[in-house]
Structures are given as structure tokens and as C-alpha cells.
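Observation: inputs received (chain + sulfopyruvate).
Thought: call the complex predictor directly.
Action: predict_structure
Action Input:
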Amino acid sequence: MNKNKKIYVPMGADILHSGHLNIIKTARKYGKVIIGLFTDSAISEYKRLPLINYKQRLEIMKNIKGVDQIVKQETWDYTKNLQKIKPNYLIHGDDWKSGIQKKTRLKVIKILSKWGGKLIEVPYTDENKIKIDKDSISEIFFNPNTRVSRLKRLINSKKIVRFIESHNPLTGLMIENLKFENKDEHREFDGIWSSSLTDSVSNGKPDNQSLELTTRISNLNNVMEATTKPVLFDADNGGRIEHLQYTIRNLERLGVSAIAIEDKIGLKSNSLFKVQNKKNHDSVKNFCLKIKTACNARRSEDFLIVARIESFILGKNLNDALYRAESYSKAGADLILIHSKQDTPKEIFLFSKEFKKSRFFKPLVAVPSTYSKVKEKELIENGFKVVIYANHLLRAAYPAMEKVALSILKNTRSSEAEKEIITIKKILNMIPSN
Ligand code: SPV
Ligand code: MG
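Observation:
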């Protein structure tokens, strides 16, 4: 080993296996091993958040034989670290010759060549071949406590955290596994929105709390069981303040990551209805008390309280919304959901522009149901950290089912509908143990 030579080894090292150790062993033969340990944010740019957080991974790495130094690798672009360290070699698995990382590879070769550095590629170790049983590993890591914390970790790691509604375990499973990938991007839903609207409607009830909280939580339990992603629970106005602590504890025990409570009182009606009763706006004082009660009830600081402002929904102005945002933030809210039923994001962007100036600023949540043309990039640019697609799966399912049912009525058989529906085998295969 030549200690004057520097070897850069980028690594996520979430679950260490013999593949990682082989790379380190190979690197040692060439010289001093410098691990570029990916941060949670770097990993979540392209992959799911690691099971083990950066701090823990760092601690493990420090104790691996043959590792001389560890540096933070904050993006998938190695340029900054390479230019600083000027390693003689970079070692990487040979799996990046195609796919998302192909461009990075070419860039690495070019940068290294500036000081005569070389890329060494070792055969990639397929985790499946070394019998890593991801399910049993997940079981160790996905206990309700670690699940609760994942939303906070995502918020700290990602530019935007993407939620979509799920109203039953099967939709939850779909959200769990769905991915979009092209040559330089990877996208998936980060979490599940447990919507009062879609829960109520899919149970044949209006969105006015006639579907009781206990029933919603008990249904949610089944969604929690089938999934691992963070859940944000829509608790309407949180119910009676005296009951709120029990709701919070119940949710936390299930592994839910956050509760959204809205500043409305009286008989609840859905926020997207045209006609709203201004009198149904809670007082700032009372709602702050609710937030404080919620904060005091939680066992873990990682369980997040989302305060939802209904000022724009109820026809109030920007000043009202801003005053509430600052007050709710001071009361302890972790995130502010600013709701709107306009068809453009104009009013919420005016709000975020002003709120960003406040020293009580908290990350913002958007629910672009009516202003659906807005792109996530614009939300990011305007200070939003969470986006919720609040009702889309239920709205997608209903017309599809109606079309098939109508086709059966029309044709007095189901054959014509076959092309519209998935096979029984596929639907059964959605359930992991099948
Ligand atoms: C829900 O999905 O239940 C919501 C969002 O609370 S909204 O329907 O816009 O009120
Ligand atoms: Mg709701």
C-alpha cells in the first residue's frame, strides 16, 4: 500500500455488506482510503431515504477497518470533493456505466484526468445475490418509532416532500412501490396523506366528521400495516381540545409522522366548497392553545404538528393569514399549511413571500387541488417544503370503476371490459406475501 496515494470511495453504506467491504479492501491496496459518505439529502435525490441516518452511518464507517478518512458527499456530483482532495484513484462499482449515473461517471473520468487520476471499477455486488433479506431488515428498522421520525428526516433532506392520498391499504401499497424513472431522474411519493375527504367519501359519508375519528384511525391501522412510508393524518380541526392528547398518542403509537389540524370550528364542511361560513374561523388564541396541547401530548419531537390556515378559504385577507402563521409558529407548529381554493397559486405565493421574511418562518405545505397547474419546482422556489396531492387516487378510481360497470350493463357480459382492468394475478401480486 502506498500511503502517499489517495483513493476516493463514494458510498451510501446504508446496510453494509460484503460488497462494500470488498471495495474498501481493494481501495486499501492502492493507498489511503477516503470515503465520500453520502448525506441523507444526496441519497434521497435519487433513491429512498436510507434506513440509517447519516450520523449513524458515519459512526459505523469510522469503525471499519481500512477506512482512513471520511468526508461528507453532499450531492451525486463529486466535482467539489474531487477538486479539493485530488485523489489518485476513485473506486466505484461497475453498475454505473448505464442508467441515471452514466453522466456522472463520464464527468468523474474527465475531472480525475486533470491531475492524472484514474477511475477503478470493481464488479458491482447485487444485494439480492448476497442474500440481503430487505424485508427482514426493514422489519428491524421500521418499528413505529423510526417510522414516525422519517418525515422529519425527509423534510431535512429533500427539496420537496411529496404526499399523495390513500384511502385504503391497497392504494397505500401502490404508493409504496410506484416509481418514475428516466435517464437522469428518479421520483416517488415520499408519504401518504390520510385525507378526511377521501376517507369519508369512500365510506359513503360526507366530509363533515360524520365518519368518526375512531373509525378513521382504525381504518388507518390497516394502511399502516401494509406500508412503510410516513403518514400525515388529516385530523380536521383536531376535535375537542380535551380529546386531542389521546388522538396524538394514538397516532404516534401507530407510527404516524404528523397531524394536520385546521383553524376552523363548528360543523365541518370541506374547504373546497364555494360557500363557507366566516364565523367558522377559530380564534387565534384558541387555536394556539390547540397547537400547544398537541405539542405537549407528543412523546417524540419528531412527530410533527402541521397548523393549517383557512384564512383564504374563508375569504379573509393576507394579513389575517400572516398573523395566524406567526402566532401558530410561536405556539409550536412545525409546519404551516396554507390552504387555498383559487385556480392559481397567486395568493399562497404572496403569503409565502411575506412569511419568508418572518423570523418565525416555518416550512410550508401546499395542497394544489384547485391550482393544479403549479409545478413542484415553483413550489420549491416559493418556500414550500411539502406538497399534498390530496384526493387524486379516489378521483381516478371512481370513473374507471364506473366505466367498467357500465360496460357490463351495456354488453351483458364482462369481456369488453377486460382491456380496461388488470388481471387477477396482477392484483393478487400487489400483496407482498402472495
Ligand atoms: C382532505 O383531503 O380531506 C383535505 C384537503 O382536508 S381539502 O379537501 O382541500 O380540504
Ligand atoms: Mg380534510
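Thought: report the result.
Final Answer: The mean pLDDT is 92. The pocket of sulfopyruvate (ligand 1) is lined by residues 195-197, 207, 234, 270-272, 367, 369, 390-391 (CB under 6 Å).
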